[in-house]
Amino acid sequence: MIVCHCxxxxxxxxxxxxxxxxTSDPYAVITPGKxxxxxxxxxxxxxxxxxFLDSMRSSDKLEVPMQLRALRSEVxxxxxxxGRPQGxxxxxxxxxx
Length: 97
Known about the structure:
Elements: E1 2-4, E2 9-10, H1 11-24, H2 32-38, H3 49-57, H4 66-69, H5 77-80, H6 90-96
Antiparallel strand pairs: 1-2
């Protein structure tokens, strides 16, 4: 089935790209952009993205490898602000003045 009409990508192409990427690097995090790149194409209008993602999710090899699952730490208030000083928002600066 054709998933992306702009670039003529089928669900078979998506699964084949995922299989190839997983075989070449078992720890790779596979994204739509990487699939487009592996197929030598680039996204055009983005209208296919919901179907593209559904086709990706149907692959057994898409899962994030077990070794990489524990790397994400819980978001805390300390690192949620990405190192910005407290009161960095304009609305907070106006109310403090």
